[in-house]
Amino acid sequence: MKVSWLPWSTMQRTSPPQASRRTRALTGAALSLCLLAGAGHAFATTPDPQTQKGQVDQDLKDARGDLHDTSKELVAAYDKLASTRKKLPGARSAAAAAERAETTAKGEYDDAVAAYDLAKANEDKAEKQLKTTSSKITSSRRAVAGFAGQLYQQQGMGTLAVAVGTETPAAFIDKMIMAESAGDTQTSALEELSTSRANLVSTGDRLKALRNKTSAAKTTKQTKLTAATDASTKADAKKADLETLESDQKRQSAKLSREKKKDKKRVDSLQAQSDKLTKVLQERARKARVREAAIKKAREAQEKREADARARAARSTPSRNAPTASVRSDPNPPAPRSSGVLQAPSTAPVSSEFGLRFHPIHHTWRLHAGRDYAGSCGSPVYAATGGTIISALPPGSTGGYGNQIVIDHGVKRGSSLATTYNHLQSFAVRSGHVSRGQVIGYVGTTGSSTGCHLHFETRQNGTPVDPRGWL
Hints:
By secondary structure, this protein is α+β, with helices and mostly antiparallel strands. It is built from four helices and twelve strands.
């Protein structure tokens, strides 16, 4: 993929939020879209492996964070599932015990209802018999009273009168026996009925007491049954809740397990990309070292040849007072000297350093990703050190940078180093290899600029850093 240089000098510094796994994934996707969208304004050369590796390593870091988060969530889900499963046997046992207790209470309640119904039936039967016996006693008493009244009306003196009024002794005896027999029968019947009534009253009292007792037992058993039913309902509900929770936790654990596999696959893929880019960069660094060694060797040979030529010229000079040839003056002033990895790209004074500042155009606090040199428009801009121009773009392709040159300096101090020169008035060179101190362009005010100046950036592994660390 081709990557454009983003306008870091216009970036606003903010405190990074705590990104979740989904936020990091969305951020990576958005960055990828930005990088693809910027391909139309990218370098004309192949993609920079160092920039690619930086992005892949960041994605790898995010993916490892996702995997770590998913693993933690999965462990927590398994712990919750194990805890729920540990509670389930007890809940199921309690539900079964409650159900058995409810069944027992139901049986005892049914027995109490049957006993109460039997006692009530016996009591009703005794009351009915008592009513029947009382009715018989009343009828018998009426019959005896009627018989006595009849005798009294007929004879006036009862049995004796009946006997005296007979015509013959045999008839006297018969009437006397009949009257005594009728009286004995009535008396015996009354005594028997009275005894039956007394027994029925006693039995009724016992049956009433038994009915009251069975009614109380029925109420007690009903209360016990209600309590057992409530306990069984609660135990069933608790068991059902735990079983539902177990099912939900199983689904959540399975989902997290699938996410973990996806995160692991993503980590492995990004790691493979990072390893591949590492090999590319190692090979690139090796070639850069070989190239620098060859350049150094050629420079040393050239310096030796020049020294030999000067020595020969000195030996062939006839006299110290001989006139010297006039030397044509350089239209550009000499580049500043420096013992650092880089030299200053301009002889002008520094007007703004790297760091947070209040942007003069956007009026917000933003990161100033480079160093500004307050040179006059048209003054020369020098290459900070030797390298290859990988981009020389006009204002329409660089955002707020205006005319911009990007130079790749290869591997320095173990890092890929590049420099950018921005807001140029014009280019002196647009491609190829440039030497340290070579004029590459001229100070201008193109792009987002308030006046003539050079905005100079150093990028270590593609990231803007303070140039002072390299000068």
